[in-house]
Structures are given as structure tokens and as C-alpha cells.
Specification:
The chain is of the alpha/beta class. The chain contains eight helices and nine strands. Strands 7-1-8-9 form a four-stranded antiparallel sheet, with helices on one face. Strands 4-3-5 form a three-stranded parallel sheet, with helices on both faces. It starts with 5 loop residues before the first helix and ends in an 8-residue tail after the last strand. 32% of the residues are buried.
Length: 231
């Protein structure tokens, strides 16, 4: 077992063992226990009372965070020529079609989101083996396959993210940066959790939101009192 670093020990000392923090307290505490030299990501982990192995209990959705993600999101739009100008005007970093398909086939994946049109999906289906493992394959459910590529670009740039429950029933996502104010962190966390609640499958029984943890890059997780989210 690896030894704890000095900063890891300091972080653990600032968290009371067994304590459940309010969302407001956790947002302030996560700033206290982050010692990275870079602007760390603010991460949330929500354990759900669902069985992801069942198709009717798969939780997947999109949310637009009120204060964005704090990240510079590089967007590639694969579209027909008639949509290129609108995509560029909306802020897309890369716009085109065949030349980018060839680049991706050659191994280029230096983007964060790929948006395309329904009519183009047939052309990029073969890229699934490259894009799928990297989470870059466009998907109608996440809004990245659409006839209105310009609107999709604008939403992604403003802080729209997509998420889905993993095989262990946990939804993990970055919802901001540690440089955000505690209030901005809280707003983003509330919006994320509220969206999850709206997506509760009708077939899910018992407690839906089982636990919520807030953390930053390389920091310990802080357990949140679920009831405090609406306070």
C-alpha cells in the first residue's frame, strides 16, 4: 500500500471521520482540501438505487450547468458543407467532414466533443472502435447527433455535459473547477442532482439517491447529506 503524501494527510485531517456534510459545507471544504498546483476539477459521485444491467433502469442524460464546467471544450463538427458556416459561427473549433474522418482513422482524437448530423452517421459509424472507448462517439441521446449543429455547439460551449450510470450504479461527472466560488459549485451540484432525480426510472424500487460524494482531482471524497441539497 502506497504511503500518503503530506498534502493527502493534510486533506484527511480536515475531514471529520464519519461526518456527513451539508452541500454548502462540502463546497467550502473541497476548496480547503485541494492542494494541487493546477485548477483541479470539481467531481461528483452519486450512487443510485438502480440495476444498470436492466435496460429499463439505465440512467443517462444531459445537463447544462449554470456556471459551465470551467473547461475549454474543443468541439469538432462533422457536417455537410451547408452547415459549416453556422457551426463555425457558433464557436466550433474544427468543422469539416471527409478530411476529419480520415484524420480520426489515422488516430487523431484531439477533441472533447464531436457533433454531427443524422445524415452523416452512416459515414462515421466505422469510427466507433476509435471514438467509442474515448467517449467521443456522437449519440442522439446526448444531443450530439442533431440537425441543428450550431445550437448543439452553443450548448456544449456554455456547459452542457452528458452522463450515464456505470455498471456499479454510480454516476460520476466533473461539474466545475475548484476555482469556482462555493456558491457556483453548489448551483452546479444542485442542477446535476436535480436532473438525476428527474431521470429516475419508473422501475427503480426503494431508495433512488443512495449517496453523494464531492471531491476534487486527487482529493478525498466528502459525503453529502442528501437532504441538504435543497437547502
Amino acid at each position: 500500500m502506497s504511503k500518503l503524501t503530506k498534502n493527502q494527510k493534510l486533506a484527511l485531517e480536515k475531514i471529520e471521520v464519519g461526518k456527513t456534510y451539508s452541500l454548502a459545507e462540502a463546497c467550502e471544504k473541497v476548496k480547503e482540501i485541494t492542494f494541487t498546483k493546477f485548477d483541479a476539477s470539481l467531481d461528483i459521485d452519486v450512487r443510485l438505487g438502480v440495476d444498470p444491467r436492466k435496460a429499463n433502469q439505465m440512467v443517462r442524460g444531459v445537463v447544462t450547468l449554470p456556471h459551465g464546467t470551467g473547461k475549454v471544450v474543443r468541439v469538432l463538427v462533422l457536417c455537410n458543407p451547408d452547415a459549416e458556416a453556422a457551426a463555425k459561427a457558433a464557436g466550433a473549433d474544427y468543422v469539416g467532414l471527409d478530411e476529419y474522418i480520415d484524420k480520426i482513422k489515422a488516430g487523431w482524437t484531439d477533441v472533447d466533443v464531436i457533433i454531427t448530423q443524422p445524415a452523416i452517421m452512416g459515414k462515421i459509424g466505422a469510427l466507433g472502435r476509435i471514438l467509442g472507448p474515448r467517449g467521443l462517439m456522437p449519440n442522439p441521446k446526448s444531443g450530439t447527433v442533431t440537425v441543428d449543429v450550431a445550437k448543439a455547439v452553443e450548448e456544449v460551449k456554455k456547459g452542457k455535459i452528458d452522463f450515464k450510470v456505470d455498471k456499479n450504479g454510480i454516476v460520476h461527472s466533473s461539474i466545475g473547477k475548484v476555482s469556482f466560488t462555493p456558491e457556483q459549485m453548489r448551483d452546479n451540484a444542485r442542477e446535476f442532482i436535480s436532473t438525476l432525480i428527474k431521470l429516475k426510472p419508473a422501475t427503480a424500487k426503494g431508495t433512488y439517491i443512495k449517496s453523494i460524494y464531492l471531491s476534487s482531482t486527487m482529493s478525498p471524497g466528502i459525503k453529502i447529506d442528501i437532504k441538504s441539497v435543497d437547502e
